[in-house]
């Protein structure tokens, strides 16, 4: 490797964060609490070196060779691909006679440890080294000053040897969790965190604390430990995916509905469909999805709330048969379990659909389910804003379903996200002649003009229908709308159940 070359880490997500990998022939710190994934990532780093034909060495102070082999086997790997150097018992390393030395035993043990490491490196001449872990060296040092001198000596030993070194630290021996002096010694620092939530699977995230000379992607990046290594989801930065705004309209196949949005939602815009439960929010989005699939456009639905089987059965009952579009691959419905998925993984799934399947329309049902995936609302809004900006740059039509609390009367929402949506469609119940009916209105449309009228919405076996403007309608924005006109304009030609 040349002085300015880069050592790929063996993890595509991390390499993307690091803008290609780690600058070669430097010393790096990989820190994190036990169980955060350090050993797995370190093994990926060495295996990538082996793949590239480089000699690799794993120096283990904390685990036996057998324990390391078990970790590797869980991912389908073998540690026979590279050299592993482990320490035997204290008696084997030091010799029984050494215990009677006038030197303190811990001084002799640390000296022997460093010498053994140096001898092994001289013998193998590796291009990649993992040192696991620094916590044992802290214990051997007994004194913080001596420990830091030994780490500095290790750095000086590897300098000029064309070796990229990762020091693993589980932070169990540091006074305040992180060792700031150690951070300053290393060329780069990568931190892994494991967070336990009140409910659901543990969440893991990665942060590059520093990397000299590299404009890496800062901030937290969610990741999972899966068979085959760490699956890292780089934080989405929408401005990196800038695209030209086309402005073409996506029609629903219903002229009256399209008329309310002056022809339909623009490509590259997001439409928020809100209203109480049962008003037809999901079905309205399915009308647009069905029309897009009929045009041959790939679409994806991310379903948080409803089961896929129930969704398809209900859609078919409303004359929206999606089964053949699923069979052809034009439509994909992903069932999302918010208790098991981090927001970073969800965004990665959306990106995968857009970039690999060239999806032109996306529906997220619902935002309340997405809220359950992240307890911190402010972070949720920021991530959703970034996701919608990304989809806008890609020219994707996005539908966001947001249920409101309550069925009738004044209603509210737990998530104020309407300001980042380009269009807002409001659905409401109203009463007329002793019947519960539905009303639809458009509150805003950044993509162009929109109707300010309120129309009746009917969803039955004939499908989705939009009636004429209800001119004698009042109170829709109060949450208690009331129709005071005659029954003639209402959609009665196909009674319920007909």
Would you write up a description of this structure?
Residues 5-246, 248-480 form the KaiC domain. It holds the Pfam family ATPase. GO terms for molecular function: ATP binding; hydrolase activity; protein serine/threonine kinase activity. The protein is elongated and about 95 Å long. It has helices at residues 12-17, 38-51, 65-73, 90-94, 105-124, 134-141, 144-158, 180-185, 255-260, 281-294, 308-317, 323-328, 343-357, 367-372, 377-393, and strands at 6-7, 22-23, 27-32, 56-60, 83-86, 128-132, 164-169, 188-195, 203-211, 220-226, 229-233, 270-276, 299-303, 331-335, 361-365, 397-404, 423-432, 435-445, 454-460, 463-469, 473-474, 482-483. By secondary structure, it is of the alpha/beta class. Strand 19 and strand 20 form a beta hairpin. Helix 6 packs across helix 7 (144-158). It is built from 15 helices and 22 strands. The N and C termini lie far apart (75 Å). Strands 5-4-6-7-3-8-9-10-11 form a nine-stranded mixed β-sheet, sandwiched between helices. The chain has a nine-stranded mixed β-sheet with strand order 14-13-15-16-12-17-18-19-20. Strands 1-2 form a two-stranded antiparallel ribbon. The chain folds into two domains: 6-235, P-loop containing nucleotide triphosphate hydrolases (Rossmann fold, 3-Layer(aba) Sandwich); 244-483, 3-Layer(aba) Sandwich (Rossmann fold).
